[in-house]
Each structure stands twice: as C-alpha cells, then as structure tokens.
Amino acid sequence: MSDAAQRRADAPTLVASAGEDASDRRVDVGVLVAHAPGTDPDRLESFAHRACGDAVAELASATDVAWRCHMEPASRLADHSRRRPSEFLDRATQRMVEGPYDLVVVVTDVALVSSRERVVPGLASPLARVAVVSTRHLRSAPRGDPRRSLDDAAVRWNAATLLVHLVGHLLGARHGDGGAMEPFDFDPDRRSVPRFDADVARDLHRVADEIPADEAEPWGRLGRLAFHAASAAGNPGRVLRALVDSRAPLLPLSLPKLSTAALAPTLVIVFSAESWDVGFHMGNATAALFAVASVLAAALYLLFSQNLSFPRKRHRVVTEHTALVNVTVFLVLVFAMVGLFALVGTVMLVIELAVFPPNLMSNWPSLEEPTVGVVDLVRTAAFISTVGVLSGALAGGLEDPAIVGHLALFARRP
C-alpha cells in the first residue's frame, strides 16, 4: 500500500457517501474543520458531517458518479478574526495531495470575507478545487433575534444547499444555470436541497468523469517545472479565465506598501540628470528587454521570498490542479508587476510632460540631437519605472501575501 493510501486508511473518517462505488468513477472529498478558540470542535464536525450527508446525494445524482466525504482532524485557529478563503488554501492543498483528494471543503465558524471585503457565507476556487463554508453567516439572524443554532433546520438545509452550490462551481457551473446554481441567499423556510437543472447536470457529469486529475512524481526541480508547464499548456482556458477574473494588473492598488516602495525612489530618480542621460541614450529594444527582465525578476522574487507556491510543504506527488494553481499565482504576480510598471511609468511621464520645462533637455550638451521627442520621454519613463518595479518588490514586498491567492483563485461571491 502506498504512503498516501495508508494515510487515508489510518487518519480520515468516511462521513458521507452516495452513488454506486467504482474505483475509476469516484470523487473523494476531504473535509477540514477550522474552528476559533473556545469553539467545541465536535459540534462543528457534526455540522460538517451532516451537511456533507445532505449534499452528496444530489451531487451523486447529478454527476452519476460516486461521492465520498472524508473528515480530516480539526484544526484550531489563532483567533476569532475574519479571514479570506485563501488563508485556508495552504492546509487545504496540503491535505489534497496527502489524501489524496479530488476536492477539499473547509468548514469554519469565523467570518469569511470576499475580495470586496464583504462578509459572505462561502466561496469557491474552481482552479484549486477548494470551497470554504462559514457558519457565522449562516447562523446570523434578524436584528433583535438570537443567533441560530447549528442544529436549526434552516441552518442545516441552507448549509447543504450552499455546499452543493459551491461544489457546482468547483465543477465549472456558473450563476444563472438554474436550480442549485442560482445565486445563494439564505432562506429560513428551506427544508431541502435544490436540484441541478438537466443541462447543468450533463456538464457536471462530464467534468466529474475527468476527476481525478493527472498526478506525477517529477524528478528534481526541472521535472516539476516541466510538469507545471505541461499542465498549463493542457488547460489554457482555465488559467486564462482565472487571470481575467483576478484583475491582476490592478493588484498594486490593493497593496499600498508595494506601490509606495516603487514610487518613492523614482520620484527622486526622475529629477536626476544621470537617469535622463541613460534613458535618452538607451535603445528602444534594450529598454523593452530591460523592462521585461525586471518584471519577471520581480515576480520570481515575490513568488519565492513570500513562499507563494502551494502546498508550501514539499511533497513527492504533484497533482495537475495544484500545478495550475502555482502557474496561475505566478502569472498573477507577473501581470501585477506589469500593472505596477504601468502605474509608475504613467506618473513619471506626467512629471516629464507637466513639470519639466519643454526646452530643458534639448539644451543638454550630452544630447546628439537638439530636439526631445515623445518617444524619448516614454523610453526614459519606462527606464525609471523598471527601477521602481525592482525596488518595490525588494523593499516593499507583499504586506498581505494571502491577497494574491484570494484574488487569483476565489470568486467574488458565493
């Protein structure tokens, strides 16, 4: 028996199952409970157990594939603070590889926030195949009423509905597909789990047949790199969709420390004669290559210095969806650095056009031509912004590394 199979036999507990069991047509779901200090983990585990039991029947019916939910040991959070779903991503991907599991569901009792800082009942990451459910939102009640209990019927059936809805997202379904994929709203009168529409069920059946994804035990760093590249090349649509949804070029606006570290030195450099000499005498091709190299170097530095690859604990086995997560996070960093480059370059260009006297540079003796064109100003601004990108990555970094995985992998609403 392999190490992974032995671990599954020893630690996780089978808590829910549905569908005809077939070794080549089965979805194994790992269920992780993350509870706040002072919370009874047994009650939260019982809640997760019941939610899985209510959900797997509909999932098995819609996909025509057997579903098995395995309960992992509960973990205690450090405090009661609200959290982004990406903060659970490291442990989820680690358990996914060790299980091994095809999907992972995290159940927590702390508040969960979206990328828009709104408290939500749950969020899903189709690329990472991780869903996070929060009981805090489900237990909330109208003003003046006591909070609902985990044993409340409304909480039970809304939790099961939310779980089915989020797993539908993990399998590629979207809002508006009808039935269980309608945007989730808590319904106090709900007493059953809505079904998937027939068209959606056919798509889920097709996707479920593709699970589990490919996995490999690549030899060395080059083998891992090749497996990551092959996984991305085989799933370009999924990676591109995640990049579009992440709005990566706008990421520097959410990281003021990074942006400040990039802008501060350039505001000094732009008034330096030496930087203008270099920018004016640099070729266009050289400036472009320098910009590309700086963006890639900054992205790689952030990736490794902030340890943003998943899972952070090195494992012998690498799964396809874990490789896709890592490729997407790296590409998000690349496009974020492109956005930072554009931000700094725009500021530099505005200073060149609006602050400097138009004939100041043309009187410099180091210029071979007495005229200064727009291309010269753009090239100089680009040169200065490359310095800003590197200084931002080195000096500023990411004050909140979890935000990258949050924006890159998780949807904005349930």
UniProtKB/TrEMBL annotation:
The chain crosses the membrane at residues 250-273, 285-304, 324-357. GO terms for molecular function: metallopeptidase activity. The keyword Transcription does not apply. The keyword Cell division does not apply. Residues 1-10 have a biased composition (Basic and acidic residues). Keywords: Membrane, Transmembrane, Transmembrane helix. This is Uncharacterized protein. It comes from Halobacterium jilantaiense.
